[in-house]
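Table 4 source record.
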Amino acid sequence: MSKTVTLTIDNQSVTVQAGVTIWGAARKLGINIPTLCHHFDVKPYSGCRVCVVEVQGARALAAACSFPVTEGLVVFTNSPKVREARRLVVELLLANHPNECFTCARNQNCELQALAQNLGIKEIRFPPSKPTWPLDETSLSLVRDPNKCILCGRCVRFCSDKQTCSVYTFANRGFSSTVTPAFGKGLGEVKCTLCGQCSVICPTGAITVKDDTDKVVQAINDPDKVVIVQTAPATRVGLGEIFGAPTGTIVTGKMVTALKRIGFDRVLDTNFTADLTIMEEATEFLKRFKANKHMPMITSCSPGWINFMEMYYPDLISHHSTCKSPQQMFGSLVKTYYAQKEGIDPAKIVSVSIMPCTAKKFECRRPEMRSSGYQDVDYVLTTRELGQLIKSYGLSFNDLPDSEYDPIMGIGSGAGTIFGNTGGVMEAAMRTAYEVVTGKTLPSVEFDSIRGLGGLREAEVDLEGTKIKLAIAHGLGNARQIMDQIKAGNPRGWTFIEVMACPGGCISGGGQPISHDLNYRSKRIAALYTDDRNLPLRKSHDNPEVQALCKEFLGGEFGGHKSHELLHTQLVGHEH
């Protein structure tokens, strides 16, 4: 039985597990100790000193984020000494922070701004003392403004400790200190996977998503264009949070209504091509499995992971499925199959996707993603960008009625929905693979052994005598472990592997709403599983629109010549 300790915080007694920090113990009492450098996703750093508290008997104020509790400890979180220290720290930060709140992408969702307001800071007593740095717009997905950086180190720690990419580092000293990619290069000039987790964990507007909403609005307002939008699975359990809904609220119908009122000509569902991806990938996997060629096979709809593999493990590319992501399959079909069905000149189509992912902005511009004869996907907006777009149109999101997706590429199954979760692609594939291999109906479509938030999970599925050994990883640090095992000869005997770049999968992608709920990942994941259970179709091969596509356009077979023309690609190394 683990040891517990009892301490007193602001005259209230609390008992917690030994080793918990003062910050963690205070949360149990409903006391929120402010912090800027600390975040529940990274190790404590004690750099910003905003979280200082007074510990009875101590000579100096202590950093609550890293100070472990002990038996009988007495702590004061809001004594005059503490409050003055916090105000001083925040004033010094504000003295060197650009006065651009009204035009900043993080306005009203900035931790520094909120902290200054909460501390009642009305004036800044100190002159600026830092140099001005140029804006970094070299990346196709992210914008970096070093002038808004408060040196909290969150991006440094997350990128190195969780994603194992170490893109960011501290540079220079004194007033010239900054956080930068190696050698002062731009994000587009280094081995950045563009996962965007740094933009989520940054407390200010120092790292933001490259905004493409103006280009999309311009296309909508062009009468000669037909603007078609697709929405990814994870967006339906993220978008509502921007408008105050509880974490994980499903807002599919309201999102469709909002997109139609904004002026998109067609609103379609990426779940359609998620189902198609399963059909193509299951076909590919079973062929490889029978031939024992390029095994284990790796699957993913995450372009951040693809970038990681191409940059760090190019010798293992042959293990990856050749299937495009659902976004890119959709893009190639909307300007071919859909255009033919609807009698639209593909040259007039502007293909837009709403994604939880920042790396999708790079993915759509890869040179090989033009199998339709045009750029398959023209613009990618993240969930956060869509939220801002809805606000700019004056729509009262929570009061909108629900609408259905438009027909043809507008139907998706529950298997497509769970693509947004870690393990979801694998579970969707197993639902189809089981019935293809055995010819029998699944007794239960839910594969509980695949689910969870463990960083690296394993399971074995018995397809009536055909045993498939699975591995699932989310977060690039865990993905690295998978790849190192494959390089070592696959000692664990995996046959099918799913990898997602972002912790939790797409539900916490770099373009999703920024949440301060410690359990936001599990709540969003639970919501997608609920959506799956509530949908009339739960298996990809039961999707009638996918079956119609196969019969009418793919020559009657998945994985055939037409499929390989439009829906598959060869991965190669790319500079970012």
